[in-house]
Write a structure and sequence with these properties.
Helix content: 10-25%
Shape: globular
Keywords: Acyltransferase, Transferase
CATH architecture: 3-Layer(aba) Sandwich
Catalytic activity: D-glucosamine 6-phosphate + acetyl-CoA = N-acetyl-D-glucosamine 6-phosphate + CoA + H(+)
InterPro entries: Acyl_CoA_acyltransferase, GNAT_dom, GNPNAT1-like
Number of domains: 1
Distance between the termini: 45 Å
Strand order of the largest sheet: 1-2-3-4-5
Largest sheet: 5 strands, mixed
Strand content: 25-35%
GO molecular function: glucosamine 6-phosphate N-acetyltransferase activity
Low-confidence stretches: none
Protein name: Glucosamine 6-phosphate N-acetyltransferase
Structural class: alpha+beta
Number of helices: 2
Order of helices and strands: EEEEHEH
CATH class: Alpha Beta
Mean pLDDT: 87
Radius of gyration: 17 Å
Length: about 120
Amino acid sequence: MFGVDTYYVTVVEDTRTNEIVAAASLIIEQKFIHDCAVRGRLEDVVVNGELRGKQVGKLIVMTVTLLAKELNCYKMTLDCKDKLIPFYITLGYLNEPGNANSMTVRFDSSPVFTAAKL
């Protein structure tokens, strides 16, 4: 596990092959609207295809979630594909009413804002 106060990467290594078989990141954000409390974000969860369905994903998500709790996060959030919602629900994550939207701005070659849009 590596961390620099705001970014923690956790990995699962297969010690027989010395290969990383799963990884996840915890990003810590300070939230001024919550009296400078910290929020955790679960990002970049990945599991080797051969190990999916064998509890490795559950292990790494639970580990990172517990780390966020130890770091005194007031909550932990994530964005995921619709098909993964049931998996995260089994680990205690919920869609909060009125707060279950994920919106994105992708930065490609087009400008985000132009004079015509203002």
